[in-house]
Specification:
Blueprint: E1 6-10, H1 15-21, H2 26-33, E2 40-41, E3 43-44, H3 53-65, E4 72-74, H4 84-105, E5 110-113, H5 124-145, E6 148-152, H6 169-177, E7 185-189, H7 191-196, H8 201-208, E8 212-217, E9 219-222, E10 244-247, H9 256-266, E11 271-275, H10 281-298
Parallel strand pairs: 1-2, 1-11, 3-4, 4-5, 5-6, 6-7, 7-8, 8-11
Antiparallel strand pairs: 9-10
Helix pairs in contact: 3-4, 4-5, 5-6
Length: about 300
């Protein structure tokens, strides 16, 4: 019998308010999310104003009290930084975040990793070397705790200057090929990021499907008059390009029925996390209901 994926939510709409401006806390977000049709709340490293056991314990207790699990902690290590000391610091910080992911979610929790920024002075081969070295250095820590590292085909961390080094499918797959298959490492798949990279989300999914351990689900739209090539001019500016718009999942550029058909056929049963709310909580609810519909349509039987 086929096990269904579970749905979680991530408040991209409040990323700056919680992580940078600190005009609201992660506890405020949990209270706002209590009535959403989701079983989990994904976390981001910037939401953790402290890394003390006291703070993490309060956060874990609040999630449990509100009947949420914490399926994934999103981290953004910059393994490709041109300075060796910065790369080593990124590895140590990521190891700490793996421990935090375990404290919040336990064994089986996904801790996202990235390759790093596309620094102009770091060429392709050096970038692949740096990124793979960083990830491989973190896997033993993940293994010791039963945490799963998930490398994302990312566009750009919200507070980075440069886009993801392994943004393009060709580079992403080259990096993935350098990391041996392991129960503690896999792919955090995001179809919208493939769209932004100018790649076919379904082609990427086909290439990585056996190694998918988690998924982000959102939909992207280009601003009126914009093209994907225009995104190149956003490099060197912190944050996401204003040319990218978010909307209700299922109404944008992604073919979600085909994505779910492939996930179901492969036996995927991990978490699927919505990244939404840029236009209000109403759209986040609508997106979550759409994902629930997709799960029930393509996973008709459960165990």
């Amino acid at each position: 019998m086929k096990k269904r994926p579970r749905i979680s939510a991530f408040p991209k709409c409040y990323l700056e308010e919680i992580s940078q401006k600190r005009t609201m806390s992660v506890f405020d977000w949990i209270q706002m999310a209590k009535d959403l049709p989701a079983e989990g709340l994904e976390m981001y490293e910037g939401f953790l104003w402290e890394l003390t056991d006291s703070f993490l314990g309060r956060l874990s207790d609040e999630l449990s009290r509100c009947n949420f699990e914490m399926p994934m902690l999103c981290c953004s290590p910059d393994f490709t930084h041109p300075e060796r000391s910065k790369r080593l610091a990124a590895v140590e910080y990521q190891k700490k975040m793996i421990e935090v992911a375990f404290k919040l979610g336990g064994a089986g929790t996904v801790c996202r990793v990235l390759s790093g920024q596309r620094w102009p002075e770091v060429d392709l081969q050096r970038g692949l070397d740096y990124a793979s070295e960083g990830i491989l250095a973190c896997i033993p820590t993940a293994q010791s705790l039963g945490v799963v590292l998930g490398i994302e085909n990312h566009y750009k961390d919200g507070f980075w200057l440069y886009p993801e080094f392994a943004q393009k499918m060709e580079v992403f797959l080259a990096l993935l090929a350098r990391i041996p298959e392991s129960s503690n490492f896999g792919v955090q798949y995001d179809p919208s990021n493939a769209v932004v990279a100018g790649d076919d989300p379904l082609a990427l999914l086909d290439a990585v499907l056996p190694r998918v351990v988690s998924m982000h689900a959102s939909d992207r739209y280009l601003a009126p008059g914009a093209s994907l090539d225009d995104l190149k001019h956003a490099e060197g500016s912190a944050g996401y390009s204003k040319l990218l718009l978010h909307g209700v999942t299922g109404k944008g550029l992604n073919n979600y029925p085909e994505i779910f058909r492939r996930l179901s056929a492969s036996g995927y049963s991990g978490w699927i996390s919505i990244e939404d709310g840029m236009n209000g909580m109403g759209e986040m609810r609508e997106s979550l209901l759409f994902l629930q519909e997709m799960v029930h349509t393509f996973y008709p039987t459960t165990e």
